[in-house]
Specification:
Order of helices and strands: EEEEHEEEHEEHEHEH
Distance between the termini: 9 Å
CATH architecture: 3-Layer(aba) Sandwich
Shape: globular
CATH superfamily: Nucleoside phosphorylase domain
Number of helices: 5
Radius of gyration: 17 Å
Oligomer: single chain
Low-confidence stretches: none
CATH class: Alpha Beta
């Protein structure tokens, strides 16, 4: 069984419209998911839509584990920290930074885990993406900020020294998935240049438009992924 976790780029998708709705109760809260055969879709923002800093990541990942999910493909909307990474690009990250807020299931146990993205799974996802777009890159460092506001120019000036893209969800999900030994890979949809990277001032209208522009490509990629993994 596999799971797809969607974000803002999939809020309006019709791909999972006919799937069955179920609720999964965990010790961290109840999570609504959609299922079809051996596939699960989870909208991380929930319904009604929660801002990034209020997402129940522990409940989400625990629910997928309880359902028997064996690997997770996440779709993440991100901003570009580099002028060479243009909006419209898809990136399959191979590492992440989030030292200021680390989600964990290990609240009461002295357990340690060496975090590492699943290289083989990431390569599989990259190859599927390359079937649908030439604007895809294998590898990149994701920096997670807390949100819900976007980052200041000063923050971006600092972060671009260490990372390639910035978002508010991947590191939390990936860390928790790794703690439960669930392979996790992400398709990061670059929907804007971060504040101050480009000469043209950033606007929310630009972000919304670029999310819409990338949505069809991502839906096609997901359909190919599901065709390959559905039994």
């Amino acid at each position: 069984m596999f799971a797809i976790i969607g974000g803002t780029s999939l809020l309006d998708t019709a791909v999972f419209a006919e799937w069955c709705d179920i609720a999964v109760t965990t010790q961290f809260g109840t999570v609504a998911v959609k299922t079809s055969g051996n596939a699960v879709f989870l909208q991380r923002h929930g319904d009604p839509c929660l801002p990034p800093h209020r997402i129940g990541h522990r409940a989400n990942i625990a629910a997928l584990k309880d359902l028997g999910v064996e690997k997770i493909l996440a779709i993440n909307s991100v901003g570009s920290l580099k002028s060479t990474i243009k909006p419209g690009t898809l990136i399959i990250p191979d590492d992440f930074i989030c030292p200021w807020h680390v989600e964990t299931f290990f609240d009461d146990a002295a357990r340690f885990m060496i975090p590492a993205m699943d290289e083989a799974f990431a390569r599989e996802i990259f190859e599927i993406c390359a079937m649908h777009t030439r604007s895809v890159r294998m590898g990149g460092i994701y920096v997670q900020t807390i949100g819900p506001r976007l980052e200041t120019r000063a923050e971006i000036k600092m972060l671009k020294r260490f990372g390639d893209i910035v978002g508010m969800t991947l590191a939390s999900e990936a860390t928790l998935a790794m703690e439960l030994e669930l392979p996790y890979a992400s398709i990061c949809s670059v929907d804007n240049y971060c504040h101050g990277i480009h000469k043209t001032p950033l606007t929310m209208d630009e972000i919304v438009q670029n999310v819409a522009n990338n949505a069809r490509t991502i839906e096609n990629i997901l359909n190919t992924f599901m065709d390959r993994n559905t039994t």
